[in-house]
């Protein structure tokens, strides 16, 4: 493994280093600007996805969804800081997998990537399920499988055309979602101002009171996945025009914008309905609240906007999953001939896009509860090891150690590790069992791949060295 540059050398360098790590043949194309990265991240999170779990988390936290989001936001800010550190050292595809394998150990990196892959591979499936559920509510005569096939087909087609078109589509789709969300907030505020449901503005949604810590942590653990968009953006480092500058900026813009949005929307919802048990359907609380604040017409607009979220989310989820598989295939962690190739004309890893599409089609056989229970495990594993990677970089590669570097490379990520481990331990038993089984499969595969650790792990893309700045 080559020597990493000092922290100051990375900060001072320009994005010529990013082009130096690109492979001479079959490399991903650098077409994404800062605005594309931000909208890809926001689309991946799907702004209207804030409505998905509102009823369930409100019930679990006794009407404190905004407080649970605040806990998650703090946790994500620590982790986002670590992501922004690592992408400056490794502006290449792969995200948490790349950071752990380069800074800690190749075998650790493989297992982190394996755990994260479960999330990336299953999210498009959940998206397809949600499409069938929402469209089925409007058109009950159309079979569920039709909506699943249409959603997966459209997302796959856009990804095969090229990442730039998919990114441009997401700018439009995110814009539509934001308009619907603003209308929702305005109508909710108007209802609260007129005393609807005896509601009044207060700090109660942010006040813990006698709320058990376990209940708050459990709700926060569910909501943490709302912020996965900034992690998805880090997988596009090899397709950003200026990754060492724009990826860190995009990460913080996405987290700040999403955090403000989630807190605002859930605050007005929780203020209007502090007790969601009064609603007819806790799981479907958001459409019911939309009808309450704006009538049937706004409910139709709300559901239509949500379908824009489904489409935008599906495009970016499939894009990120395909590129994570590409990074692992290119480095030999997965069969390179299948996973490590891109189309020379479009720069798209076609086989990976189609593999993710095939997995998404399992939405035809799995219900939402079963699918969602599998998602949480790998996300917290990835977040934890990104924070750990920063600490390892500090002790292994940085020679000039100031008080500021100790805080930025050790103290802050250590807090991130503690928070993420705490949230990981708050996951339900089903998530732990499924995630543990998936990880065990990864361990077995790694043992077979390395012949019982008697051979070296797969070759890695070397980190950037100082000479590339010259």
Compute the separation of the termini in Å. Answer: 20 Å
Mean pLDDT, nearest integer?
Answer: 81
- Our estimate of the beta-strand percent is under 5%
CATH architecture: Up-down Bundle
Question: Looking at CATH, which topology would you report?
Answer: Amino acid/polyamine transporter I
How many strands? Answer: 0
CATH top-level class: Mainly Alpha
Give the key terms.
Amino acid/polyamine transporter I
Please provide a written account of the structure:
It is a multi-pass membrane protein. Pfam families: AA_permease. It is found in: Membrane. The chain crosses the membrane at residues 37-58, 64-83, 144-163, 170-193, 213-237, 249-269, 289-315, 346-365, 377-398, 405-424, 430-448. The chain is an all-alpha fold and 470 residues long. It has one domain (7-469): Amino acid/polyamine transporter I. It is built from 19 helices and no strands. The chain has helices at 7-12, 16-20, 34-45, 54-60, 65-89, 96-103, 106-138, 144-161, 163-193, 213-223, 229-234, 243-272, 285-330, 336-339, 350-360, 368-372, 376-397, 403-425, 429-449. Helix 7 crosses helix 19 (429-449), helix 8 (144-161) packs antiparallel against helix 15 (350-360) and helix 13 packs antiparallel against helix 15 (350-360). The longest helix is centred in the middle third of the chain and has 46 residues, at 285-330. The chain is globular, with a radius of gyration of 22 Å. 52% of the residues are buried.
